[in-house]
Here is the input.
Amino acid sequence: MAAENSGKTLSREDVDFNLFQVLQIDKLAARPLYADLDREIFSAVLDTAETIAASHFQCFYRKSDLNEPSLEDGVVHTLPELKAAIGAFTEAGFMSAHAPANEGGQQLPVAIVQAAYAFFQAANIGASIYYFLTVSAGNVIRAFGTDVQKTRFLRPMLDGRFLGTMCLSEPQAGSGLADIRTRATLRPDGSYSLKGSKMWISAGDHEISENIVHLVLARIDGAPPGIKGISLFIVPKFDVGNDGAPGQRNDVRVFGLNHKMGYRGAVNTLLSFGDNDDCTAYLLGEPHRGLEYMFVMMNEARISVGLGATMLGYAGYLHSLEYAKQRTQGRLPDNKNPLLPPVPIIQHGDVRRMLLQQKVFVEGALALGLYAAYMVDEERSTHDTTARDEASLLLEILTPIVKAWPSEYCLEANKLAIQVLGGYGYTRDFPEEQYYRDNRLNLIHEGTNGIQAIDFVSRKLRMKDAAGLDLLGRRMQADIADAEAAGLAEFATQLRADRDRVFEATRANFRNAAPGRMGEYLVNSSSYLDMYGHLVVGWMWLRQAIAAKRILDAGCTGDTEAFMQGKLSACQFFFRHEMKRIDHWLPIVASNDTTVLDTSPDWL
Amino acid sequence: MAAENSGKTLSREDVDFNLFQVLQIDKLAARPLYADLDREIFSAVLDTAETIAASHFQCFYRKSDLNEPSLEDGVVHTLPELKAAIGAFTEAGFMSAHAPANEGGQQLPVAIVQAAYAFFQAANIGASIYYFLTVSAGNVIRAFGTDVQKTRFLRPMLDGRFLGTMCLSEPQAGSGLADIRTRATLRPDGSYSLKGSKMWISAGDHEISENIVHLVLARIDGAPPGIKGISLFIVPKFDVGNDGAPGQRNDVRVFGLNHKMGYRGAVNTLLSFGDNDDCTAYLLGEPHRGLEYMFVMMNEARISVGLGATMLGYAGYLHSLEYAKQRTQGRLPDNKNPLLPPVPIIQHGDVRRMLLQQKVFVEGALALGLYAAYMVDEERSTHDTTARDEASLLLEILTPIVKAWPSEYCLEANKLAIQVLGGYGYTRDFPEEQYYRDNRLNLIHEGTNGIQAIDFVSRKLRMKDAAGLDLLGRRMQADIADAEAAGLAEFATQLRADRDRVFEATRANFRNAAPGRMGEYLVNSSSYLDMYGHLVVGWMWLRQAIAAKRILDAGCTGDTEAFMQGKLSACQFFFRHEMKRIDHWLPIVASNDTTVLDTSPDWL
Here is the structure.
């Protein structure tokens, strides 16, 4: 059996750099919402996350790949290590780290919570799914549930006694939620009876927790067709009585498991509700507003998915970096004397290029994910309504990028990590191949990247008369000015120029966004999203370079100096190598080329 | 257990189009070497390949992934289907399809043989490794072996009684062959005694054939250091007596199996030679020329690897295309009425984009692989020395591209195929994920793509005063002229312009290729290879468009018309979308940016 990777899977130094130097998150402590917090507390939270991630999550990452959950006699079996991991996570307070103090939570900023979660994701992405869904489902109940629902379901979720799921897709309607068929019938007692099947339900069954709380999209009898007739329900595995203890087994069954290429530690189920016409469901909020409710937690969920993808890339980067420093092979092009010893492969230009490329992808994605998480904090904690609206708008326009870009480019990083190891990287003796298999999912779930692209081009770019675009431009401008002042003119100039031509093409294309012609307007959505992704990550690199330059200019030595020099080099690589990709996508977008639509399906 | 994919994995129509319309391979029949052949024979060969690939190879592709070969008590066990497949392949004459008539072979053109082999690769890439290595090893013995060696080893390999391997890498020296340590000691009888370990040996042990013929790189005692002291040996698993029958078991043992992410049907072994100081080896050709001999078959082997990668991409493309035509989901952006039925997903712009992108990758790669194979035929069969030298030169410059480009972009095609299916594509119920896992190897073996890039930039571009580059330019020019005459001016103009600016930057950079500065010159090799890959595949698309246009202009209907229209659309997509990537790579190459080398390993 392959050994577990016991090395670092995420750089604490990089997390701290982003939180404390780039985002200067300590400032949040001045806000009433976070009044009792300070940097020391933030650091202690991260310390704990780092420790438990290593001791309880990383230790069975490969094992969970080799031992998929099984379904026997209708019961799902998972590894004992998983239950222990979720237990340790809860015990340390992470299940309620984000929750308000009046719920017994720590009321930590989202950026700190996401940073802490990142350590668990980097250690064991499959295991992270269980708490992720619980926290997400809990947030929806907090926002829209009744007090009784909060007491019965949210409370034990925060205590880790109940875990949660999200039940959206159905076999016949994956991303097409308008066509879901699960039906809800009102009962005399005000509850509903649910009937239908759900597909792709992660953590849909297990014996880790006392109970499972499913949030289920369904259509109340007589509801309008399409997405405007979808409601959201709480469906507990065991119904919960007034005493709060799990009671009678509800009529929800797992009838199959999906067996995937990766993410094998996260059980993925097919669930059927109401096979015996006895599935009890509680309406959450008002009828027909289910999708709207789900979308409230979507921004945060998509930040999590983006950061999860980032962490798989990060873990692969650090492992392949360590390998490249140890492994000797071959000689340099300018001195091939076979009598000399072979060199560590990091000395080879193309190997170092593959490492640097991984670095700009994973560190760029981390900066982006934490920036977005910080915007959630900004939105929540500021009392300045303009600042709040801007944070909200920025989040809207960034979310598709925050989800899609890391999944695309950190998968690319995983591909490069394998390549650094060569044949070894392709074997199951090293973790690179598992990171690669696992990360392939992140382009698909929480809205495929194609759907993110359509959302971005059809809604986000144009919303409020393109106010999001304008705001994005202004925020970039502020950093461009800082970069110029910091002596980073090359990158500042390039970002300004790239931003201007990308925005110009975007605005010119708005004229094509006319009713009846939206198919044409949207045909190159993926090129748009790729292009904006690189533009935004270029901006994130500029922000990191400004912070690094400031620290270097103030004087530093040793590891800190090397770290900051690495940030500057990586920024340079991103601008000189990666940003050039904009020249690939821009002419496609600018010409609004319709070759794809002009190609008849019969010609394929 | 997941079902086997019983659909088409390669388009016969596309193979025929390339061979007979684009390459016009029938012309070869006019050459003395192929005098007894004609189109009817070529078609019959392809018919047989297509039939046997479906009946004996495709039927256990998934099964071979789920049931890896096992090593028990020093013996490797493989699936019975594998032995049956190799048997049917041999029975139908494919093991000697390429061999000269005087060896009992069919003396078929390489392009026909590679096209036939492509069907087996598309059906079951793991199983194809066994005959591929046998044919390659046999070719080396034919070129450099003595008559006795040919009788004892080559003859039974052509009969499929013996299978072959290539033993190059060692655990401490993967791609760094200069450092191999396996030793060969001359015995009084003229044979050698071998001692050492080899790594990554595909088909290194099994019970499919009576015997296994290993070709092994080793260092004769006292040989010069480095690659100039490496010799090539024949090491049979069972020694072969004068009667040609396998005799005594030789001192070569399998001491471990590599367990990979993919290619699981192809057993990959660690071999030890001479554990008991009794490993008999026969020198092939002259001492110290082993690497040179291996490189003689390298061009063809790399064409095979490129075509193998292409076939995995092709199989994924066809499967996802079929799925996209059947699966209904969602509605079009200009008519989202939920009362209308959902549309087949091929109607969605971004899904069709993913299909078209797969199409240009896999069909472009197929055209390239067959073009290169045809150049081998041209080199062998022409009596015009200029034509022969040119074919040889063109092969030299194209080989790194033929190996690397398909592996890179057909892996990308596999990634897109998964995306077309969404969550389903990520499960093991569909073949897309296996194609993706399998294809990841092709960037690594037969010389990593990074090594291909260095070979391309350091040797191939500059060899003979850049004569290869000039020739490539002239060959493109001939097709550019034809394209203009055929009314394909848009693509002709673009190819000319791209070629000219790529060549200009390349030539300007030659000044950096100075002794002591080769590290700098080579630092962006991968960008070079990517850029030339797209340039050359753009040319391949232009050639296909010319042939398609000719057929359309001559008048055709139905499926043929749709096929030709598809070629024109795909060419347009390649030029308007894919060729723009050159604008990403060109400035990196043109500026000879050295950010990578300027980044200290400590900064990573």
